[in-house]
Design brief:
The structure is a single chain. This protein is of the alpha+beta class. It has a domain at 3-69 and 103-112: 2-Layer Sandwich (hypothetical protein PF0899 fold). Helices cover 26% and strands 32% of the residues. It is built from two helices and six strands; from the N terminus they run αβαβββββ. It has helices spanning 3-20, 41-51; strands at residues 26-34, 61-67, 70-73, 79-81, 97-101, 105-112. The chain is elongated, with a radius of gyration of 18 Å. The two termini are 32 Å apart.
């Protein structure tokens, strides 16, 4: 259910930028969705279709680009993709890792007419 306020925020961002650009309508919204993000693309799409109705963004296509998770070992500095069930560093075996990519959800760009 937390996708509704997130989707409302995306719509505000999109409409703000579209209006500043003097757009007649928003055609496409490109979103980055990290592998570790708790956001569900299907839910965002569902809410988008409801709340964008009657705005410049009504009917705009939402395009999700999935971003794989990437971790950095705090012990040896190696950066590696998650790709495994555990989060252990493949170089040194340390469990002291930090997420460096793949936890985001953001508007990358919008396309307008």
């Amino acid at each position: 259910m937390h996708e509704l306020p997130v989707t409302e925020s995306v719509l505000r961002i999109v409409l703000d930028h579209a209006q500043r650009a003097g757009a007649r309508r928003v055609v496409r919204v490109n979103l980055l969705l990290g592998e570790l993000s708790s956001i569900l693309g299907d839910s965002v799409q569902f809410y988008w279709d409801l709340i964008a109705e009657g705005t410049l963004a009504e009917g705009a296509e939402l395009c999700f680009q999935r971003v794989p998770a990437e971790l950095r070992c705090l012990a040896c500095g190696v950066t590696f993709p998650l790709g495994r069930e555990d989060w252990l560093c493949p170089a040194c075996g340390s469990a002291q890792v930090k997420v460096v990519d793949g936890d985001q959800f953001l508007v990358e760009s919008i396309e307008v007419e």
